Amino acid sequence: MVKPFIPDRVYFEPGALEYEVGREIYSKIQAMGIDIAYTTSHNRIMDLPGDNELQKYRNAKRTLVVGVRKTLKFDTSKPSAEYAIPISTGCIGHCHYCYLQTTLGAKPYVRVYVNIPEILEQADKYIDERKPEITRFEAACTSDPLSIEHLTGNLRRLIEHMGKRELGRLRFVTKYDLVDSLLDAKHNGHTRFRFSVNADYVIKNFEPSTAKLEERIAAARKVALAGYPLGFIIAPIYIFDGWQTQYRELLEKLSTSIPKDHYKDIEFELIQHRFTKPAKRVIEKRYPKTKLDLDESKRKYKWGRYGIGKYVYQDIQQQQIKNLFMEAIPQVMPGAEIQYFT
Fold first, then answer.
1. Four-residue CA torsion sign, 180, 79, 270, 5
2. How many Å apart are CA 159 and CA 17, to the nearest integer?
3. Strands 81-84 and 76-77
4. Residue 340's CB: how many other CB atoms inside 10 A?
5. What CATH number is associated with residue 194?
6. Between 61 and 175, where is the model more confident?
7. Number of domains in the chain
């Protein structure tokens, strides 16, 4: 089991201690003997140690900011869900390919929000607006909330809240295995617990500071046995020497670990590796020794939303990826649903 994240320093923003969640986090941090400081805003944190940008970036990853979410308008989260429910931003992992590299700025602190009652009240309003349709909320758009659940308890709060809502559903994805505190939560089958999994080559070379594949699969088995609907995101699907063999082995490992009577409750999301020009510049700066292949000449340029294009695999490679998973998943896990390939 991966060791729980212990931040090097913690900042509290104004108003954070007015909420029960904020006071609980404060007590935990104080008991750990971690330095506590106060700031008027996370944007004003200027005293992180480090002689250069790379060192300060790594120290930012070890910094927790506890604050109040001021904007209660939820972003959309297609195709995963109707809305992104904001409980945290930033991630303790160091995945070389991660899109958060370019969206969280130069100092990607891990931020958690404590005004959970207000956030859940807003979620209920969205549910009411969409009646009688079911409304899905994604809790991991800008973070991996399971990696900090031992500090916040916020996932459990969301899970049990949605468990009571007839038309509310929660979804989140993780690369961690610290699931024990959630196994007895009253989820009522309304939370889909998803794990990001990948070939051994990808995890070993591009996913530092995350749980090992075997640890994630063992956690997924626990989650399935606790009655949660389960999902696996295989992303990024990355082409390397021997990729077909390793991805088939991955699927076989999943099929042997998850009880067969749970296959029908499993969803797969398949996402090929892609990158943007800005992401490439940031990745090469922050992980100068990465083995990640970012050669634009080998890729196809695809226009995205908001006029921002990305480099994806060539059509023939995309078809090879799609064929492998569309054939293999029904073979090894009959009844599991493939949500999409992109």
1. negative
2. 23
3. antiparallel
4. 11
5. 3.80.30.30
6. 175
7. 1
